[in-house]
Structures are given as structure tokens and as C-alpha cells.
Amino acid sequence: MARSLLSHFPILSNSTSPLASSLSCAIAPSKCFPRHLFGRPKASSFQCLCTLSVSEPAVPETSSSVRKRIVSGVQPTGSIHLGNYLGAIKNWIELQNSYDTLFFIVDLHAITLPYETQQLAKSTRDTAAIYLACGVDTSKASVFVQSHVRAHVELMWLLSSATPIGWLNKMIQFKEKSRKAGDENVSVSLLTYPVLMASDILLYQSDFVPVGEDQKQHLELTRELAERVNYLYGGRKWKKLGGRGGAIFKVPEPLIPPAGARVMSLTDGLSKMSKSSPSDQSRINLLDSKDVIANKIKRCKTDSSTGLEFDNPDRPECNNLLSIYQLVSGKTKEEVAKECQDMSWGSFKPLITDALIDHLHPIQVRYEEIMSDSAYLDGVLAEGAARATEIADATLNNVYQAMGFLRR
User: Fold this and answer.
1) Where in the chain is the domain with CATH 3.40.50.620?
2) Most buried among 113, 198, 267, 360, using CB within 10 Å?
3) Beta-ladder partners of 103
4) Band of the pLDDT at 257, cuts 50, 70, 90?
5) 0.90 exceeded by the pTM?
6) Looking at residue 70, what DSSP letter applies?
């Protein structure tokens, strides 16, 4: 799940397509899933959760000055790569202009799989600096470290008591990762990862959560868990304990980016670009040098077909590289399709290489400036954690009260 600088820092995106909400399904209807995925289905329980696409200027629908809230974050393990940037961080830059936004570094999630203890703190700072270098603006968004807000862990434990084990056993990511690791090496935290993710979201009474294809199931569990806790402990039961009554948690909606939500590997157009891939050749890291970027694009997997085209299922690498070029160049899909339809790979690779280098260079320069001023970065994270704690503690106190705990 995922989470700025002074307001005069540039937004480093050449895209002219701002984000917005529109009430249309953002993915194929066949990929929509039932609302009560984890509970007992009801006759009228099917509801498309892909109701929010982003394509026009986003104006939160509210009759007051209070903005809708969005939370998101990225793990600090490994290097932040192009997939993290184009699929998440780049979209945050526009979302922060219209929503109340909290972007955090999810370091607690990072320890669910084996990791380097000597690198965790450094990687956390690096990730925060990259957020800021990409254009996250501290006058509009809060940036903080997940473990710096203790309410995340406290709420996770409370939510765990209301989470049926069967729900967690259905998590596709857990099945895939545990199969790779082997039962003897799988931690309990990997199984309960979705409960911590639910805590991350529900603590802040989030209205929307930017999600990619691989996180939709986790968000659905979050929604189901919010409704379950509201039913078990909210309403009149909570009011009898001295609370305000009604719902304890907002039930968040998914926010599906219009493009770039799933950037694929440079070595396999059918696999998502990932930090966990053993080959660094499979990804463009945001801090890669010009020579490294050029070498990776030169060696990336292509095909032998003539001309370049989008959306051909038999040419996944072609579609992926064209999509990346479109996003970093700021051109429309139609413009890119026309420009590249008669190109050979020999002509296209220098083109996408130059576009990537030009797009990432300002981010890399700003990153170095931020990392050279540790006091500034520490101040940003402290200020972000203080604001996040204020919001989170209010929610956590309500949950403790509704669940019948003795007041502190």
C-alpha cells in the first residue's frame, strides 16, 4: 500500500492528461469481482469495484471545503523502479492537487520477507527522498514512515481479532509467495500482511485508495473487514458504550489509474516489473545512470515483427515499451501509435532511451539535493508523522472504545 517538497518544486511529468473521477469501469467487466468476496454472497451482492477511473481533472465531490482523502505507499526494499513510479508515484503528483493525501513508506510490510537489516533504514530514507524528488509536495501531502505511527500496529492487532483465517488463506499473493519460499520459510506476517494493509487504510478514514491489478483483492478484504467491524462493534452497540454510534470506519473505494498501472518487465512482457526479480536487467530503476538505462533498453526483449503497435496480445513486449514511451514522453496513445507504426526496433530503442533519460534526469538531480540535506528530510518525515498520528489516534481511540476496552 504506499506516500513532499516545497510547493515551488516542479511536477516532473510531461503528461497533459490530468486525473479525474468518472463513473465508468476502469477494467474489463469480466475482471470485476463480487462485493462479498469473503463473506456469504447475497442475492444483490455483486458490485463493480472498478468504478473510479482517472482521466479528467479530479474535483472531489463534496458540498464543503473538506477534501476526500487518499492514502498510498511503497515498500522501501530494493530500488524504486519505473513500475513503482509510473504505476503509483507519478499519479500521486496530480492526486495531491485535488485530494487530502497521505503518502508513506511502508517499512513494516518490508519485513514480511527476508531483508537486509543494515539496508532498511537507508532504503527508507532513499524512498522518502524519491517521493519528494518526483514532485510530492509537503504543502499538499503528508509524507511519513509507517513504523513512525504506532497506531498501524495497534489497529492491526485489533483487526486481526475480527479477521477470519479463511479470508487470509484466499489471498492469491500469499499463495504465490509462500509457494516460492516453502512452508518452513513462510512467516506469519506474510499471511497477515493484508490485515496490516487494511489497518494502513482504515486508520485514516480513507475515501479512495490507488490500486493496481495485483492489489485489488487486498483492498476488497479491507472493505469487507471495515464492514464486518462496523457491524460487530458499531452502531447502537458503540453508542451504548458512550461512543457516537454509526460506522467506525469508512469503506474505501478503489482508484484505478487509466494507464501505467501495470508496467511490465523488460525481459518478459507477461510479467510485472518487480523489485523482487533476480535480474536488474528486468527493470529501469529511477536512479539508474544514462549508460545503464541505454544498456538495459538495448538488451531488452523484443520480437521480430515489422512495425510497432499497441494492444496486440501476441506482442506483449511491444505494447509495454510503447506504453512506457507514451507515459514518459507525455504524448497521447494515438500520437505514439502514429509516430512508431512504421519504426524498426533499431529506430525505436534510441527514441525511448532518450525519453527515459530526459524524464528521469530532473528527478535524479533533485534526489541528490534532498539527500545532501538530512535535516530537511528528517523534518519532512517528522512533520508528516505528527499529522498522520493525530488522525490515526482519533480512529484508534474510537476502535478501542467500540470494542469495549477500558479507557486509558
Assistant:
1) 69-260+374-403
2) 198
3) 72, 143
4) low
5) no
6) E
